[in-house]
Fold:
Amino acid sequence: MSETLYNGISLPDEWPPRDQSPATSQPMRVPYLQRPPDVIPIDGGRQLLVDDFLIEDSMMPRAFHRPVKHTGNPVLYPQTADECNEALPPTAIPKCGGVWYDERDRLFKMWYMASYLGAMAYAVSSDGIHWERPSLDVVPGTNLTLPRDVHPDSGTAWLDHEAADPAERFKMQIREPNSPEKGGNFGALMLTSPDGIHWNQRQRTGPMGDRSTMFYNPFRKVWVQSIRSGAPGRGRCRRYFEHPEFLASGNWQEGEPVFWTAADCMDLGRDARAELYNLDAVAYESLMVGFYQVLKGPPNHIGQRTGEPKLTELVLATSRDGFHWHRPDRRAFIGARREPGSWEYGYVESTGGIMLVVEDELWFYYSAYGGDPDRITDDWHTNGMYGNGAVGLARLRRDGFASLQGRFPGAGMTTRPLRFSGDRLFVNAGTVGTRLRVECLDEQRQAIPGYSLEDCEGFVGNSTRAEIRWKDGAGIGQLAGRAVRLRFQMDRGDLYSFWVSAHEDGRSGGYLAAGGPGFTEARHI
Structure:
């Protein structure tokens, strides 16, 4: 029997689907955009306008937006003895860890690699900008959270708000480096912890390649393994394995994970063909947000000769079923600065949790490498192409991945039929000297009495949370439970999202990615 999701999408009987072919380089087909539900429930968070899933008709073009990098970058860089190990390239990067906000002690927390392939370390911050390295008892006198004989290469650290066992509130997957003894395809460590500091090694996963990671999909309540693989003609790609239990998500045999996704004909390489280096994801509001880490070259042996990092950049992806990804904008969402002497010359990589919600912004922490042309070695473990890795921060307006733009008088957008249970309609929008108004339409696409454009008080200004009301201060609650189309009209400005809430403060019930100050749960409820 097929599964119907929170947003009305029906999954096929075979899940995960096995219809993705490594033989084609065409963009991934997204079934729910081709055949959206007849009526779409929207109680599960802010409704972002990143695709046409919600839209029936529009005269408002879509614009994609990219974050602004923090002027004080990098916010964390190699300083300690473990981060500047003389035998290894100096780095302090969370590509194998994560950045989360822990509401229990009101701290930003970071798990990161100290020296390239060195050890797993831990830092905390009260503001997300200034980071401290606490002295821990795991390796006394250091901020290491795992013994020095565990060498992280890839993986993910995750704060599990839904953990039934407090001893497993933090979860981690660590895939150690390739070696002549292990080869290039072996299991990763799966660990759990009550505090994110003291970790218990529980088991190993099935075989995987390097740069494999994991994430949790709370909409379907499954742990997803994002497994590095390869395919003829496609190079690096991803395979998929899921399970409701964290440890069981690692229990696969060779050949069980299904082919998932790869770089395609729309991804442009620079010094070589494009390949998919990694895919991380997290739940934000009503959908999954992912980063395709796209490799653009040059090949490894070129970087090793010069001590310069390869070029990988992060491309935005969104999904409403957790498997199929929509990527209409192939520009780098967070890119490298390919200039000599830049701290972020290459290897831009995402981290577990992807982003945090900080007031009216989304904060993205990312890894990047400056390289070291003076460190040329035959051993890739110690080569300068992996040197001087540090942590950057980029900021974006909340919900600000994409907006529908009013560019002329009368510009508007009409949704597909929607169903909701709240009584207050909110928008995230910025108007330009005009008023954003909303009309509610019945099944015959006629304005419902009392909810026409003329009845709407509308909104003028710039806000990530503005309530829309109609004459006499009426909310939208009278229409709850009905199939209703919403028509948004705005001559000039940007509409980023809308949602219906039962609360005066606009709480959406959506997911909050890696959390943020002021939030006490995984969802804004």
